[in-house]
Amino acid sequence: MENYNGNNNEENRNSNNSDSLYSYSYINQENQERNPNYYEKQEEQNQGTSERVSDNNERTYIAGSGYEQEQGHTRNDQQFYHTGQSSYNGEPFQNGAGAYNGQWNPVPEGKKQKKKKQKVQGEKKHHGFGMALGKCAALAVVFGLVSGTVFYGTGLIFERTKSSTQLETTTGGSNKADGTTSNSSGIPGTSVSTATTINDVADIVDNVIPSIVSITNMGQQELGMDFFGRSYMQDTESAGSGIIISQTDKEIYIATNNHVVANATQLTVNFVDDQSVTAEIKGTDPSTDLAVISVAVKDIPAETMEKIKIATLGNSDDIRVGQGAVAIGNALGYGQSVTTGVISAMDREVTVQDDNGASITNSLLQTSAAINPGNSGGALVNMNGEIIGINSVKYNDTTVEGMGFAIPISTAEPIINDLITREVVDESNSSYLGVSGQDVTEDIAADFGMPEGLYITLVQENSAAEQAGIKKGDVLTEFDGRKIQSMKTLKETMRYYAAGTQVEITLKSNQNGEWQERKVTATLGKKNE
Fold this sequence. Notes:
There is one protein chain. This protein has helices at 9-16, 38-45, 129-161, 202-208, 258-261, 302-307, 409-421, 442-448, 464-468, 487-494; strands at residues 51-53, 59-61, 87-88, 91-92, 99-100, 103-104, 174-175, 181-182, 212-225, 231-247, 251-257, 264-270, 276-285, 290-296, 324-330, 336-353, 359-367, 379-381, 387-394, 404-408, 431-432, 435-440, 453-459, 475-479, 482-483, 502-511, 514-523, 525-526. The chain is α+β, with helices and mostly antiparallel strands. Strands 9-10-11-14-13-12 form a six-stranded antiparallel beta barrel. A six-stranded antiparallel barrel has the order 15-16-17-20-19-18. The longest helix is centred in the N-terminal third of the chain and has 33 residues, at 129-161. The termini are far apart.
């Protein structure tokens, strides 16, 4: 292959092997490396030489430049030079300039040429590699000694001064005795946390799971009306969970959600050993989505009685956001399963609709522990194995993950106890209020700008409602402290009240376009009179 000036590569390589003074400053045809300092060295050596610089910063060498230049011939950085060449771009050197050891070497005028010892090609240079290796080793030893001394001195100085030096925190504040930090503005900084991660909850599960049951609801659901106005029903089966909370000589009581047992024709409870027993509804409170079912002790095998436990209830008022939580329940009806997470938030106002379409709004705990269908009525447990909530709702959306909700046990416990102790009043002594009404759901309330509850459409004459001051157009929102969302909820609640019982009723009345709340006391009448 021919090179730039017509010389072949072999000739060019042979020329480059000569130890010429400026051979490092040329472009090598094979590696194309160039020393940019070449021209600066040339300028230093050419002092005293006549040089003319044009307006475009191009230098014109007239004399002493080492090769013949016609007047006006310029050199710039785009030109290439090759070692061992006797011509420049095919033009021979003139003015007596020749090659120094086979390459062009201009000698500035008035300067004495420094003679360099020639190196014969193929001659071995004495002490070349060995001497270089020895120098490197010596330098390494010296560097190690110096750096070791510096590090030792620095460490000694730090040890002597650290007792009187206080490091700044990342907030720019200073450490306090209680472990927190503060800065110049007076705002306290965060302290070091002692929290631990949730790694193993096996002991908690072993202790709590004997108190958790699976519930199967065989029921009927009304699907609509036929052409003749007759309602038609469909058999349904659903699954949920429950918590064993107390026991008497005759019955075991299990807390769960109202929607788990709603519209049931038959309830079956499955204990920890997979023993199934028929259960009955003890009481329900649709306004809080709570219910209690009971199982007769005589129906439970002795072996099962030895394996089941009564759950220990905690205090949900004492929990904090970020504390660990374990959810246990009959997920998807497959049997008991366990998920873990933390308490994500407290006092979340969550609104759901019951089976009748009525809206139910309660203040719930939010957890990142997975709550799936079938977990309803199951336990939310803290790291001490105490029940702190009854799993109730999961936020179901494709864009949301890890938002489950539970009824705080401190809110649920008094309602559960009331459901256990109160009895359904005998039909002969059942109570009567004397109103008819229209359910005000969340959608209706939003459309018409009115409160949720039971809109009173009729008040019977001489009834308990009329005597208490209830009027048509009022919205009944609470009955004896229990929320009322529908006519069905009111009737279900009144099953536990005997005739002659005094109750407080909360109403909202429209006064000049604004809904004003008021409370009245009613003495319930007798239903059969």
